[in-house]
Design brief:
- The chain has about 70 residues and is mainly alpha-helical.
- The chain has 2 helices and no strands.
């Protein structure tokens, strides 16, 4: 009985860790299918610039970081 419970716990833990690994962000890694596309890189840079600008405005307005 103990071995059955232990094996179920181990298999459940492996399943959960595998699902967590699948949901990790892969922006810029080998799994990122758009990493070598220059147009996508330009768009990402534009979005990053917008976020940085909004963050700077927020810090200036409130006096603290988000």
């Amino acid at each position: 009985m103990f071995l059955e419970i232990l094996s179920i716990a181990v298999l459940g833990g492996k399943y959960v860790s595998e699902k967590i690994e699948q949901n990790k962000p892969y922006y810029g890694t080998e799994r990122d299918i758009f990493r070598n596309n220059p147009r996508v890189q330009e768009n990402r840079k534009a979005v990053d610039d917008i976020i940085a600008r909004q963050r700077a405005e927020y810090i200036k307005r409130t006096g603290h970081d988000w």
